[in-house]
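Priority: low. Protein: Carbamoyl phosphate synthase small chain, chloroplastic. Input follows.
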Amino acid sequence: MANQVAFDNIKLRSLSTVSLGETPWKVADARLVLEDGSVLKAKSFGASGTQVGEVVFNTSMTGYQEILTDPSYAGQFVLLTYPQVGNTGVSFDDEESRQCFLAGLMIRNLSISASHWRGSESLGEYLCRKNIMGIYDVDTRALTRKLIKKGSLIGVLSTDKSKTNEELLEMSHSWSIVGVDMIDCVSCKSPYEWVDETDSEWEFNSKGGDGSTFNIVAYDFGIKLNILKRLVSYGCKITVVPSTWPASETLKMNPDGVFLSNGPGDPSAVPHIVETVKEILGKVPVFGICMGHQLISTALGGKSFKMKFGHHGGNQPVRNLRNNHVEISSQNHNFAIDPASLPKGVEVTHVNLNDGTCAGIAYPALNAMSIQYHPEASPGPHDSDYVFKEFTEMMKKNKHSA
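Result:
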């Protein structure tokens, strides 16, 4: 009897903390309005407000913080298909850039607690501090199926109750990622030197550099820090330059090679960068990743096109056509290159096995190579790390033949 009275008192005290008209749990307070007219209700976390962007889905099972800080997601809402997110909190050591550039994060379940020996704060606290909107209790499976069927959709995410669904729908119809220069807002503003290599505790290829050193210029179109670390681990001394850095200034630096980084958006929207790449090709060895791959291909005369829903995730199978090996790769892009548009002499070296799209090229006559995925993959598969070695071998061969 005494235990029952004590239990009733606990219940009364708990109920007394909830005001009339309130609920002891969070209710839906955010809307996602898609350009096809769909309206999804969800619960918000992180920042509040109204934001427009392109909705894409990512199939990675780990690495949500690396995804959040990948500049290639600028202008996009990232829908994570893995259902439970936030379990390990956030660690400052896992960031891929200086800030979060994506439009927002969409997940199924938000972990109510975070536990990790390197964790410093919760995912919600992190998004608040970075001013990034997030929603949870979203039927991510249904939304992913919609995106697969219809393709990537423009959406508007809002916690503002004063805005009508019709107003948000109109916002979605007035915005596009196609033909927009997304690189300018993510690139660095002035050159700097990068010296950090992959930490020894995370080093996964002890056969990296052979003692040779190479001075390279890395164009920042939204570069990920682990790409820079892998290049240093293979013996590169790096000067990172902005996307607007003139080719003439690069060539004055007399580099052993030039690296063109990953980045967001449409390669056809940055013709000024394409012209820069044209001026560099044939002068020094050039290596590109993702956006860098698209820019090299475009500079060679290739044509890009918008994919239906793109490739986003750490489990994309790629076939290396040179040795017939299959690599599991990390990818993040919504545009691709039509291989039929590439000129004679350009070799397609890799293809995506899911849809047959071009995943890598080489042009030996101009000492150029590129891939449409992330060989540094942090976190993710390391099957493709060898391409950094191929870049250094290309630079070494060029130096010896000079």
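The CA atoms of residues 1 and 7 lie 10 Å apart. Confidence is low (pLDDT under 50) at residues 5-20.
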